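SAMPLE LOG
Freezer: B-3
Tube label: C17
Construct: single chain, 537 aa
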Amino acid sequence: MRTHQKKADQLPVTSYQLPEKKHCVIRSPLNWVLATGSWLLLFMQILYILFFGVCVLSFLGCGDSPLIKRGKQLAANGDTDAAIETFEEAINHDGSRAEAFYQIGLIYVEMVDKNPSGTAHREKAKEALSWALDMAPRTAPRRTEIRLTLGTLFWLDNQKDLAVHHFNQLLDGSPKRDVVLKIAGLTGDAYHVQRLRTEGSDDYEQTFTEKGNMMTFAAKFTDDYSPAISPDGKWLAFASTRLQNAELYLMDLTTLELQQLTHTDELDEYMPAFSPDGQSIAFVTERTRGGMMLPPVQASGSDPSRAAIYLMDVNGRNQRALIDVGGADRAPVFSPDGKKIAFESKAPTAEPTDDNNNAEVDDTLEIYVINTDGTNKTQLTHNNVDDGHPTWSPNGKQIAFTSMVENIYQIFVVNAAGGTAKQLTFSDLTKKLDSDISELRHEVFGQSHYHPIFTPDGKRIIYVSSGDNHYTIWMMNVDGTNKTQLTNHIGAHFEPSLSRDGKRLVFSSDRSDHMRIYLMDLTQPVKKEELKARLVF
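STRUCTURE (predicted):
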């Protein structure tokens, strides 16, 4: 990920005196010689043809000019100003205009990613990319990338007509699957989604008494949330407030039959997590909030002062505490071998702060790992900010989690054995002086990222992002690149959970007024024909 410095407001491309577009006719060298008899001019024409070919080949990906290579290296090193100046030089001198405009556009696009509300960067990105598209050879593969990026920028700026024009240009051909997927995720759901009928039939809702007896009544105004899909993809565990407090339920995804797992009217149970063999469930319990549902999308703010992690058999029996502490333990997740559990904890820890062994309480959330029998509790992170929502990589060697950076939540990854964490997502923070209270306040224009989960192959991470206060689900490469939006629907989207085969993704959303559980079939991407119909306004 590039780290960019601020650039002057003037867009450099506007200062170029670009030639008027003319039809270029290159005569046959032999006919030209017969007509002029000039070997010198023939030699100059051959040099022109070779120079033109080099420029085209450069944009076709057959090799960059020295200036383009240097500009890319400067951009990769975070020296944005020098990179843009180098690309400007390439535009003016070495003929690599399309590639140079494209690279300038990418720099501004990344600035937009880090500061979504930065309209100046959006306009500069669109102008540079428009020049690149205009100059790119018709057969250049990067025309697809340019057009997709332009369409995305227009869509985000609510210039839907221009966006749809670019998207249809891409869809009219034979677009690659990832192109269709990116357009689909930007304009709606990228894969087919269905609502799971966790609340019962259309006429009656299924619920249970404290003793476990089933009863039916109209429960249209309660929430079902905190979903977890079993490793084999056959069962769904989730929390529901249908009994005023939050209880855990288990649903057969084939028959849709429900079973109540917990029966504690004074407590809330939520955040279920299946063991790798599907035989056990870890979950969180805390004193009830009276039916108030708070989706745990962040590592702090909604966390309770006291909460405990429990284990139980998949049928709800044999419930026991994982560890008995006085703080708040949440977000349990089993290691791939089922022997350990990672979790977030806000249990106060007293550490010596001076030579007299005086201590102060550290109440920030940290990531811990513990054996499933409650022994060998180990602290993994040691930060002065909150760290939460851990998740194991499929090979058990890494743990991804959410952490705060300058009041914005980002996703990090760290070795399961400990060490220095690597940041995967980034956002910009704009500081503003509030004259009413005469202090420096932070206004966050960047987007926060929460709740990471690895795909089964360990190559990608699915997570929640909050751009423009709209919570959506995304997917990115494990190194933080190639972000693809999976949902863009009315309502918020939280708590993704993935089956072990990577085919079924469940999440909670209030797209139907109240929080419900939805299933995304990752084997059924939106097809090109469906997408074109979606783009008709």
